[in-house]
Amino acid sequence: MDNAKLKNRLKYGAIWGFIAFELIFFTVAGEYLSLSDKVFLDLDNMMLLFKQSAPIGIIALGMTIIMINGNIDLSVGATFALSAIVLLDSMTWPVFAGLGDWVIPVSWLLALLTGVVLGAVNGLIVWKTGVDAFIVTLGSMLGYRGLVFMYHGEQPTSHLNWTLVDFAEASFLGIHTPTWFLLAVAVAMWFLMTRTVHGRNAYAVGDNREAAVNAGIRVGPHILVNFMLIGFLAALSAVVFYSESGSVNPNDGELYELWAITAVVLGGTKLTGGSGSIVSTFGGVIAIQLLRKGLGHIGADTETVNLVIGVILIAVLFLDRQLNIKGREELKT
Amino acid sequence: MARFWSSGLGGLLARQGILVAFALFMIGFTLANHRFLDPDNIMGVVRSSAILGVMALGVTFVVISGNLDLSVGSMMSFSTIVVLDLHDRIGPALAIPAMFAMTLVLGAIIGFLVGYLKLNSLIVTLGMLSAIHGLTLTYSGGKNMDIADKEGTWFSVFGQGEILGFPVPILIFLALAAFLGIVLARTPFGRKVYAVGGNGVAATFSGIRRARVVFATYLISSACVATAGLLQASRSLGSQNTVGQGMELEVLAAVILGGASLLGGSGTIFKTVIGVLILGFIQNGLLLVGLQFYAQYVVTWIIIILAVWLDIAAKRGRLWSPIA
Predict the structure, then answer these.
(1) Are B324 and A128 in contact (CB under 8 A)?
(2) Which domain holds residue B266?
(3) What is the pTM of this model?
(4) Which of A280, B62, B174, B240 has its CA 20 to 30 A from that of A169?
(5) Beta-sheet strands, E only, within chain A
(6) Residue A80, pLDDT score
(7) The CATH number of the domain where B187 resides is what?
(8) Is the dihedral of CA A255, A257, A263, A268 positive or negative?
(9) Cα separation of B66 and B202, whole Å?
């Protein structure tokens, strides 16, 4: 196996090693420290873990393609909240009163449409003005959150539709509905990134934008499509989550962008663009959720999880750099 | 259109666009509501912007040197909680220097990681945002912090006191702005900050120690954050442990609004102060005009995008991006 391939394996494989380490650590530590008698590696517990990873996970999968592009999206948390409000509020609109339970697909469509539109606004601004995606989405993060608050003020928006709740709480083949969504998005994104022209272009644009332009890729529309995609996924994440909970606070989704970016970076995707993998992001999402659950399991304060995640994020960055420096030195000799 | 941007008026608008926009806003709000230019109102706006402003001063150094600091919000929560906690334990005279020392240690850690280890500042400060948040929650045990004897302490002077009719937070903000403005514009260190942000490689070849300069910018930033935490703690004499949450982005918005480029190498303290004031006056003006509080976020969004867009449009000489 040549050097570059080995390095890639190491880079994208590391996250699975980390997950294995977490599983062993929390199982063993749980034996001695846990307050409850429950085993950590319990099937129900793991199924719950997948379900809880779904909201951040779906967004993180979308963030991967944005970051492979060399862009970033800080507005996903606000998009998530606004789509959730549209989802729950539209079910009570008098226009749809005669629809009965058929209002559900209509509201879903409206919520997803909201996400796509908000993403498209970001994408169009990035494309047409040439302002850096970091600034554009930093601005829209404030702006979209403003819209969220203007909708109902500081009041929560609530609407429970029991048909919907039953659907969201159901499980099929022993797997919860949100987990199915997470898996479906993961497979779809994996297919998009590894088996389609659009996926190949995403790597090309992130690696060298000039070269991509010269190769005939229409970079502007490409970026626009990706922002619409992450808007769609942020909305989908909201649809999956709020179908079950039925109530959205205007602060919901805050810091989601940070969690999503953390998952993507843990999975080995570079901020500078051009490299990254959907499967590893999936690993990053699972690793973060394992950490949250595991720390709770061994009786640590839930607050510590922030501390640990922060330290791990910086450690990963450091290790990644050391690995790259080493790789470059080997190339020289 | 292209001619407009290279003409005198377009150039002026692009170079000093932020000042022009500021002036237009002030005129607009004054026409809409005569109370806007009331000295009390203006004083109130500056006073409530002071905490954000103090933080923005430090972040200006970091941004000019070509880095980012997303950790200032959670670091401010940390300083506020720490100083309130120590106030009752060891008294205000010792609590303040102790809090400054602890905050500076955090700044030094970031400076070491970004400066000497050359790690990406976005991710490092993102990690520190999370880590310091966890630290604050662990330190406070998840509880809010309050000073026991709120009446009998002189500690409130920083946030609530007045000297010759001027609120102390404003004086601290202006004094710090003047001091840091001189450091940035008139000292060799300030020139090094610009050099490192403008062209890091060239700066290294001309004998500037990049790592040391970057380290210093994060120390300055954390010192400003500690000052902001002191003002916050002293103003309210009690605090939630999430008091600074989300402020990192507002701070960054103010700095960008002031015209600092995220690529580094440009920006001034004066312009950052203008950026801070614009945010404050827009918020206040929209309220006086009768718009609801949260509309300011939408307006801020539009203004940030327009400000940066006009800036780069002037630099490339055309309005629309050349991306195909």
Answers:
(1) no
(2) 2-316
(3) 0.83
(4) A280
(5) 157-158, 171-172, 175-176, 247-248
(6) 93
(7) 1.10.3470
(8) negative
(9) 14
Nearest to A128 among B297, B308, B320 (CB): B320
Contacts of A279 (CB under 8 A, 6+ apart): A12, A186, A190
Residue B217 resides in a domain: yes
Alpha carbon of B258: minimum distance to chain A alpha carbons (Å) = 13
| Residue tagged 């406070």 (tokens) | B140
CB A203 within 8 A of CB A125: no
Query: In this predicted complex, what is the ipTM?
Result: 0.79
Q: Which amino acid is at A165?
A: V
Non-local (6+) Cβ contacts of B295 within 8 A are A146, A150, B286
Which residues does chain A have within 8 Å of residue B122's beta carbon, measured at their own beta carbons? 271
- Which amino acid, B7? S
Q: Which two tokens stand for residue A51?
A: 């379900």
The pLDDT tens digits of the residues spanning A109-155 come to: 999 999 999 999 999 998 888 888 888 888 888 889 888 888 877 77
Residue that has been written with the tokens 């494309």 in this structure: A127
Sort out which chain B residues have CB atoms less than 8 A from A319's CB and list them: none
What is the count of structural domains for chain B?
Answer: 1
> Which of A304-307's residues contact partners 24+ apart within 8 Å by CB, and which partners?
A304/B134, A304/B138, A305/B134, A306/B130, A306/B131, A306/B133, A306/B134, A306/B137, A307/B130, A307/B131, A307/B134, A307/B135, A307/B138
Asked if residue A35 has pLDDT above 80, the reply is no
Q: Name which of A147, A210, A307, A312 to mutate to probe chain B: the one with the most chain B Cβ atoms within 10 A of its Cβ.
A: A307
Q: Within a domain: residue B324?
A: no
